């Protein structure tokens, strides 16, 4: 997919920074509408990533034309949501808004999902530059100049475009206007870990929330018969655990902590074996961010990031890309600065209506989950009313996103 033999100076209608689900969705939609699009992705695919792997919005995948491939690869439909906290093991129906199988979300490893999405974008005509990274981004009048470098041989390219779409996440600091500054360490930082297991006893179709002192996590059946376990833990709790014997590796220390305080996870993984190694990620920074500046739009975590407790990160990234691109396509490739400003404001408002509520709900749930006292107060209610799990899942966004069809302006 690498276009390494192209000219030193490339002109595109849009440049997408990042080839994950949000970036690939944007590249696919714009290329399908006839835009000349470059997707700049710094990593070689397939690649693993710390992520819950759950995709809730299958109707959107169908509208993108990737649902058939997704169904072939993904795990079983997730029909129940669960809660594993201490000795409590609960389950309740997963909410759905459709009478078809598309009403159920599924799990798929990022090494497969991201590759599949990027292949579809390339198949639609997007030019994929991989492994390339943006090193400088500058706005000059109505044009953005994007300097890039090959991640391995340092070969350089300069791209020119009217529209830049930042889909490069929120975790990697840098000097680009699309990247955050390096944050100061905080005791409340949430550190992420993830692993796959085989031969798990987790019931097919069940996606439980794991709650343990100082953190939370989730499990879901993913591709190839594997179960994915991903979790977050506060930095101060992790440091306390690391100081106590036995001093295992960081991920194993967290895993032992989960097994100690979650009977459901302990039983589900009692006879399971680790498939590959553990992965870890630095502190996550949930929150709502700026979604547009002159010539620059953000999607996915670059636009706003929810605490992973609601397992909606992938779906939110793709939905934000759809919300943006339906407006760009409707406006046409020859957008003036004033028209891009109007699109940016309209997109930002639509993003808030569709996604901001999930970020706020996720923040509230996360604050409760990492506090043992709050969990001990709420657990009796969940045991009496398991349907609260269904309601919580619905509030977090486990329902269909109704995408409209972008229309090209001739």
Terminal CA distance: 30 Å
Order of helical and strand elements: EHEEHHEEEHEEEEEEEEHHHEEEEEHHHH
Counting helices, strands and paired strands, the structural category is alpha/beta
Task: Please summarize the sheet with the most strands.
Answer: 8 strands, mixed
Please, could you describe this protein's structure?
The chain is an alpha/beta fold and 410 residues long. The protein has helices at residues 21-32, 58-64, 67-73, 110-123, 235-243, 250-261, 263-268, 313-331, 337-369, 372-384, 387-395; strands at 9-17, 37-40, 54-55, 80-85, 88-93, 106-107, 127-129, 132-140, 143-150, 156-166, 190-198, 206-212, 215-221, 227-234, 273-281, 287-288, 292-293, 296-298, 304-305. Helix 1 runs parallel beside helix 8 and helix 8 (313-331) packs antiparallel against helix 9 (337-369). Residues 1-7 and 406-410 have low confidence and may be disordered.
Please specify the SSE layout and strand pairing:
Blueprint lengths: L8 E9 L3 H12 L4 E4 L13 E2 L2 H7 L2 H7 L6 E6 L2 E6 L12 E2 L2 H14 L3 E3 L2 E9 L2 E8 L5 E11 L23 E9 L7 E7 L2 E7 L5 E8 H9 L6 H12 L1 H6 L4 E9 L5 E2 L3 E2 L2 E3 L5 E2 L7 H19 L5 H33 L2 H13 L2 H9 L15
Helix pairs in contact: 1-4, 1-8, 8-9
Features:
410 residues, alpha/beta, eight-stranded mixed beta sheet, seven-stranded mixed beta sheet, 11 helices, 34% helix, disordered N terminus, disordered C terminus
Task: Quickly describe the structure.
By secondary structure, the chain is an alpha/beta fold.
């Amino acid at each position: 997919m690498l276009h390494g033999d192209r000219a030193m100076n490339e002109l595109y209608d849009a440049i997408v920074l990042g080839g994950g689900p949000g970036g690939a969705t944007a590249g696919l939609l714009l290329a399908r509408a006839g835009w000349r699009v470059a997707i700049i992705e710094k990593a070689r695919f397939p690649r693993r990533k710390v992520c819950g792997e759950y995709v809730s919005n299958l109707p959107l995948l169908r509208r993108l034309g990737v649902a058939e491939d997704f169904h072939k690869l993904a795990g079983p439909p997730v029909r129940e949501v669960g809660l594993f906290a201490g000795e409590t093991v609960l389950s309740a129906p997963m909410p759905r808004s459709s009478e078809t199988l598309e009403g159920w979300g599924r799990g798929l490893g990022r090494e497969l999902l991201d590759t599949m999405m990027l292949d579809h974008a390339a198949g639609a005509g997007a030019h994929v530059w991989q492994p390339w990274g943006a090193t400088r981004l500058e706005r000059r009048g109505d044009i953005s100049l994007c300097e890039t470098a090959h991640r391995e041989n340092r070969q350089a390219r300069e791209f020119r475009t009217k529209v830049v779409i930042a889909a490069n996440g929120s975790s990697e600091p840098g000097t680009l206007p699309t990247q955050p500054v390096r944050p100061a360490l905080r005791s409340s930082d949430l550190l992420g870990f993830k692993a796959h297991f085989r031969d798990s006893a987790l019931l097919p179709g069940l996606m439980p929330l794991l709650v343990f002192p100082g953190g939370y996590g989730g499990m879901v059946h993913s591709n190839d018969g594997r179960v994915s376990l991903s979790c977050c833990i506060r930095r101060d709790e992790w440091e306390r655990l690391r100081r106590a014997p036995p001093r295992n590796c960081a991920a194993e220390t967290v895993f032992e902590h989960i097994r100690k305080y979650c009977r459901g996870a302990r039983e589900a993984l009692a006879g399971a074996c680790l498939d590959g190694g553990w992965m870890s990620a630095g502190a996550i920074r949930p929150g709502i961010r700026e979604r547009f500046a002159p010539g620059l739009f953000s999607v996915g975590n670059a636009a706003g990031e929810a605490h992973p407790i609601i397992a909606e990160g992938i779906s939110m990234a793709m939905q934000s890309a759809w919300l943006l691109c339906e407006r760009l396509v409707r406006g046409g490739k020859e957008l003036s600065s004033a028209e891009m400003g109007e699109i940016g404001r309209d997109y930002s408002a639509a993003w808030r209506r569709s996604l901001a509520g999930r970020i706020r709900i996720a923040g509230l749930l996360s604050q409760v989950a990492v506090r043992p006292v709050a969990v001990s107060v709420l657990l009796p209610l969940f045991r009496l009313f398991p349907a609260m799990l269904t309601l919580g899942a619905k509030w977090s966004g486990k329902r269909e996103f109704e995408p409209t069809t972008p229309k090209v302006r001739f």
